[in-house]
Every structure is written in C-alpha cells, then in structure tokens.
Design a protein that fits this description.
42% of the residues lie in helices and 14% in strands. The chain is α/β, with parallel strands linked by helices. It has an eight-stranded parallel barrel with strand order 1-2-3-4-5-6-7-8, surrounded by six helices. Helix 4 (124-144) crosses helix 5 (165-175).
Length: 270
C-alpha cells in the first residue's frame, strides 16, 4: 500500500508549497480536488494538467487522481429529470476524466453527495436508472484513458443515495463497465451497521481506492476508530492501492494533520 493525501488539506497555498510539504512529510502521492485548482474546473486544460504533473514529479510525488468531482459548478446532478442538465454533467465528468489522465492520475473518487441525492417526491427507481446512465456515460470515456471511477458510499447525513458499500456495488454492477468500481472511506463506513472490517472483506473484488480518516473529521489515529482490524482486513483482502488521507476539520493545521496521519498509518502497517 502507498500513502497519499488530499490537496485541499492545505487550503489555498500555492501548489508548489503543497507539494513541498507533502513530500517532506513522507507521502508518495497527492489527490486533487478540481475546485481547488480553478474557480470553474470546466476551464482546466491539458496545459494545467501537465504543469501540475511536472511540479508534483519535481518533488517525487505522483498525482493519483481526483475527488470532490461535482463540487463546482454546483448545479450538476446525475439523476435530475432534466436531460440537458444530465448531458452537461456527463460532459463535465468526461472532461475531468481526460484531465485526470493527463496529470497521470488513474482514480476519480465519485462522492459528490448533493449532486446525487433524491429530492422529495422523486421515484427512486427512475432516479437509479438515470444515475446509472449518467455514470456509465462518464465511465465509457474514463475507460478510454485508463481512468477508473471509484464510486463512494456516503453517510446518511450527507446523502440519501448510495449509503452502503453493498448498495454501491449493486450500482456499479448495473453501470456494467470495467471503469466503474468502488471506493471505501473510513468515516463513511462508520455510518454503516456492518463492522468496517467486514465491509472491506465483502467488497474486496470491487475496491480500488481507500480514504483514511475518522468520523470526527480528522485524520486516521486522531479519533476513536480502531485501525488495527481495518489494516488486517486490507491485508487479508490483498488491497494494494493507495491509502489516501482525507480530512474535513483543518484546525490542527495541514502540517500536523499530514505528519500525524502518516506516522499513525505507518505504525499500523509496520
């Protein structure tokens, strides 16, 4: 397993400064949130992707991919009964897939709770079908560029759609494309009734990416989640991808979060 961290941990610092500290902390990879790179991520270009890749490489880092895909523009949605809006969402997702590939990234974590939630009165079956169609349209383009969509189950406080790994696997099965797989997140799995190690074991054939964090919104080891059984389950299932630190409470400071999270993960994997 390899270690990465999400770039939004560092706020609005210049990308060079982010890479410098991430490398100094001991990480191998960086995960990018498109909205941190440009106010309107639709304007991200191949030149931007190549520049970011060169900067990361100059610090010995790999850009593993993207997450927080549909944060900006905020109106995108995968299943609203608006054909034009869904086509725009597909086009944007395809654009991000090409951008991701140009940075050298191979994973796009699909969380985006607001852009997938059902509104009151929606027919769930129709919502599901439209969502499958939208994600398949992005997966087809992503697959051409060697990028995998990593669909992320999220807690019930964040969304009312795809709340468990099992449901998300069924969704991926209906998308029915090799570029559509599963992402697991410790904070999100903590909302499920099933113990986290059991979720990991049951999802082993689908899992392509993993976020390490805690329900308290801080990094791994900075809360109450016990990581020993999580690490054991990852080892048992042969997970060989990234362990990417994603936090939501930045108050301890990026340097502290980065170093304490990585120190803890390395201790668990020693």
């Amino acid at each position: 397993m390899r270690y990465a961290i999400c770039n939004e941990t560092y706020g609005d610092r210049p990308f060079e400064a982010v890479c410098e500290d991430v490398a100094a902390a001991g990480y191998e990879g960086l995960e990018l949130a498109p909205f941190t790179l440009k106010e309107d991520p639709r304007q991200l270009s191949d030149a931007d992707a190549l520049r970011l890749s060169r900067i990361a490489a100059s610090f010995g880092l790999e850009i593993l991919g993207l997450h927080w895909l549909l944060t900006k523009p905020a109106w995108f949605h995968i299943s609203k009964a608006d054909d034009l809006l869904r086509r725009d969402t597909v086009a944007f997702g395809q654009h991000l897939a090409r951008f991701c590939a140009t940075t050298g990234g191979r994973i796009m974590v699909w969380g985006s709770p607001k852009a997938r939630s059902l509104e009151e009165g929606w027919d769930r079956d129709e919502h599901w079908k439209r969502a499958v169609e939208t994600v398949r349209g992005v997966a087809e383009e992503a697959g051409r560029y060697g990028v995998t969509l990593a669909m992320e189950p999220l807690g019930r406080k964040e969304t009312n759609f795809l709340n468990t790994a099992a449901e998300t696997i069924r969704f991926c099965q209906e998308v029915d494309h090799p570029a559509c797989k599963l992402h697991l997140d410790v904070k999100a799995m903590s909302d499920e009734p099933t113990p986290i190690p059991d979720i990991i074991r049951a999802s082993k054939d689908w899992t392509v990416h993993f976020h390490a964090n805690d329900p308290n919104l801080l990094g791994p080891g900075m809360g109450e989640v016990k990581y020993e059984p999580i690490v054991q389950a990852l080892r048992e299932t042969g997970y060989a991808g990234w362990l990417s630190v994603e936090v939501f409470d930045y108050r301890p400071g990026a340097e502290v979060i980065a170093r304490e999270s990585l120190r803890f993960l390395k201790e668990q994997l020693a």
